[in-house]
Amino acid sequence: MGLFGKDKESEQDRGDKLAELSVEYIGGYGDQKKDKGTLTFYQKQTEFKNPRHNKKLWFTIDNTKVSEVAIEGKEEIRRRVTFTRVLALGVFALAFKKKSKDKEAYVTLELSDGNEVVFHVENQSPIELKASLSKALPLFKQAGRPTLSNSSSVADELTKLAKLKQQGVITQSEFEKQKSQLLKL
User: Fold this and answer.
1) Are residue 167 and residue 121 in the same domain, yes or no?
2) What is the average per-residue pLDDT within 16-40?
3) What count of other Cβ atoms lies within 10 Å of the Cβ of residue 121?
4) CATH number for the domain harbouring residue 81
5) CA 81 from chain center: how many Å?
6) Residues 86 and 106 in one domain
7) Of 7, 23, 32, 162, which is most buried by a Cβ count within 10 Å?
């Protein structure tokens, strides 16, 4: 994952462009501030950019670091407050904007390190958003699965999960759910 990427990334570095969305970045990636911009899905990486900034502040996430992409409506996102989301977003994790719009969705990139990067999309329902990301979503199902080459990182993640459960940070059911996601082949 890199901050402040190169201005001109080659197609070889990024791969083909799969989808692009106008979003509001909510939080979860380092110390980046909440901001509006463009979320672009490429074959090899996902980028968030805000062209208004002179310094071209943006970040990229290597798609192999994304274990899952969740697309949810406002009610689902409120119900799905996880420990990592609380850590990433602070009190904002518990109080997302309460808008009366029916057409809004959230894209959550669940990273292999347990962090979640959250984006808000206006004027699209979750179903419409899934349709517009139909080319990109299958890529993450492939990229996030553990392989023999990264089995040590899966073991590390299981160890971290066990410690969180032992400390009482996550429940047994949360532990089991995340454990099963890590072990999917």
Assistant:
1) no
2) 89
3) 22
4) 2.30.29.30
5) 14
6) yes
7) 23
Q: Are residues 125 and 170 in the same domain?
A: no
State the Cα–Cα distance between residues 5 and 11, nearest whole angstrom.
Answer: 14
Q: What pLDDT sits at residue 5?
A: 45
For a pLDDT cut of 90, what percent of the chain falls above it? 15
The CB density around residue 79, as the number of other CB atoms within 10 Å, is 8
pLDDT digits (tens, 9 = 90+) for 82-125: 555 555 555 555 555 444 456 889 999 988 888 889 999 999 88
Whether 77 and 155 share a structural domain: no
- The region, left, alpha or beta by phi > 0 then psi within -120 to 50, assigned to residue 168 is left
65/45 Cα distance (integer angstroms): 9
Tokens of 182: 């890590």
pLDDT tens, position by position, 129-140: 888 888 888 877
pLDDT at 164: 78
pTM comes to 0.63
> Residue 48 belongs to what domain range?
2-143
Residue 41: both structure tokens together: 């899905």
Judgement on whether residues 135 and 162 belong to the same structural domain of the protein: no
With both helix axes pointing from N to C terminus, report the angle between 172-183 and 151-166 in degrees, rounded to the nearest 10.
180
Domain count, the chain: 2
The helix (run of H) or strand (run of E) holding residue 35 is: strand 35-42
122 and 57 assigned to the same domain: yes
